């Protein structure tokens, strides 16, 4: 009997996709490509963490209900623990949301350019992804968004605010307008919300279609891979059925239980990044040949008049790694720089000035 060849076993939707590619780094590079926090743990927190990790029972499965982390988060957010679903990064929660709500052919919508995983995960699940372009300077195009929502009736809408990679936000009024016409869920992705100082959390109670997605990755804990969503407890209970058991490993749970209790460390670092973002922006707008877009996140998107690929390579030759977004539709010659420490940002500005001079 003739058997199908290996690639015939893979679904056509998957064959046509490109894998998510995270840039490889080297220890000698100034790493400003992944929107991480630049601040390592201070020595006293490292010690506390070491003691907590030492007590982890590796021969046992982790707590399946993530009780400690869940109750710390619930108290901080002032929501009931049943409103939370925890994920192995918020990536996993995007997947879980779509698995629980959508079937092949269902439409998922997001303004674009945006975080690439919305589209990738939707396509992997055989869903239809509809991107609605932002305006010329990446401001929300509400009339177009609303027209498309009414026409296509998406099951899930993703609104990243601040948006990655453009850095802009949706105002509360804009989100309410979208909620008013959305036939399905509106997922407000606040992965960078701490840097914008705004949240839709207070509106969860009166808006049952609203789901808020958060991540610990961008506020100093990327290595833990923990994200969470906050939703109406009725919806959260259904999502829990899709969550794989033990999705948060015991080390991550133990570490988060320690570090989430050091909110002042997280907040101080966020404030420092916000201060530095203003400095980076100040330098970028002063550089001839650079157009920088307003950002409420921990990164800044900018476009160069000289070829973005050359600028990217010249930065790399000088030891500075940023994200080259030139191949993303609508982002020709665009690069995204994560806000680092003051020293890292100074090196970036210096390297960019050199790169633009060489062109
Ligand atoms: C808007 C947005 N949402 C979600 C994520 C995923 O974050 P994580 O899976 O690390 O929690 C990212 C990561 O870059 C992002 O930019």
From TrEMBL:
The modification N6-(pyridoxal phosphate)lysine is found at residue 218. Pathway: Amino-acid biosynthesis; L-histidine biosynthesis; L-histidine from 5-phospho-alpha-D-ribose 1-diphosphate: step 7/9. The keyword Magnesium does not apply. The keyword Transferase applies. Keywords: Amino-acid biosynthesis, Aminotransferase, Histidine biosynthesis, Pyridoxal phosphate, Transferase. It catalyses: L-histidinol phosphate + 2-oxoglutarate = 3-(imidazol-4-yl)-2-oxopropyl phosphate + L-glutamate. Transmembrane segments: none annotated. InterPro entries: Aminotransferase_I/II_large, HisP_aminotrans, PyrdxlP-dep_Trfase, PyrdxlP-dep_Trfase_major, PyrdxlP-dep_Trfase_small. Residues 28-352 form the Aminotransferase class I/classII large domain. Its EC number is 2.6.1.9. GO terms for biological process: L-histidine biosynthetic process. It comes from the Bacteria. It is an enzyme of class 2 (transferase). Its cofactor is pyridoxal 5'-phosphate. One of its GO terms (molecular function) is histidinol-phosphate transaminase activity. Belongs to the class-II pyridoxal-phosphate-dependent aminotransferase family. Histidinol-phosphate aminotransferase subfamily. Homodimer. HAMAP family: HisC_aminotrans_2. PANTHER family: HISTIDINOL-PHOSPHATE AMINOTRANSFERASE, HISTIDINOL-PHOSPHATE AMINOTRANSFERASE-RELATED. This is Histidinol-phosphate aminotransferase. It comes from Candidatus Methylomirabilis tolerans.
């Amino acid at each position: 009997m003739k058997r199908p060849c290996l690639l015939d076993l893979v679904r056509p939707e998957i064959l046509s996709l490109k894998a998510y590619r995270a840039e490889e780094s080297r220890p000698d590079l100034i790493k400003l490509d992944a929107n991480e926090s630049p601040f390592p743990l201070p020595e006293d927190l490292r010690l506390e963490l070491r003691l907590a990790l030492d007590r982890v029972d590796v021969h046992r499965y982790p707590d399946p209900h993530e009780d400690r982390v869940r109750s710390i988060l619930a108290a901080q957010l002032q929501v009931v623990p049943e409103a939370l679903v925890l994920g192995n990064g918020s990536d996993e929660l995007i997947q879980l949301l779509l698995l629980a709500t959508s079937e092949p052919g269902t439409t998922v919508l997001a303004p674009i350019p945006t975080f690439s995983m919305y589209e990738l995960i939707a396509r992997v699940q055989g869903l239809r992804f509809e991107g609605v372009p932002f305006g010329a300077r990446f401001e929300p195009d509400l009339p177009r968004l609303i027209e498309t929502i009414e026409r296509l009736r998406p099951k899930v809408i993703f609104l990243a605010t601040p948006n990655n990679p453009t850095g802009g936000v949706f105002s509360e009024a804009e989100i309410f307008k979208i909620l008013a016409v959305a036939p399905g869920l509106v997922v407000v992705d606040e992965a960078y919300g701490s840097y914008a100082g705004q949240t839709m959390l207070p509106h969860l109670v009166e808006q049952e279609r609203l789901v808020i997605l958060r991540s610990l990755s961008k506020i100093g804990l990327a290595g833990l891979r923990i994200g969470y969503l906050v939703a109406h407890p009725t919806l959260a209970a259904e999502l829990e059925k899709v969550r794989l058991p033990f999705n948060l490993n015991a080390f991550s749970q133990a570490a988060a239980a320690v570090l989430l209790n050091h909110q002042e460390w997280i907040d101080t670092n966020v404030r420092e990044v916000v201060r530095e973002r203003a400095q980076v922006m100040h330098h970028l707008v002063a550089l001839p040949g650079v157009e920088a877009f307003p950002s409420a996140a921990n990164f800044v998107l900018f476009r160069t008049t000289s070829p973005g690929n050359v600028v990217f390579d010249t930065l790399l030759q000088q030891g500075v790694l940023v994200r080259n977004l030139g191949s993303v539709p609508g982002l020709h010659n665009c690069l995204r720089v994560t806000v680092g420490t003051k020293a890292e940002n100074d090196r970036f500005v210096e390297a960019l000035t050199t790169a633009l001079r060489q062109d």
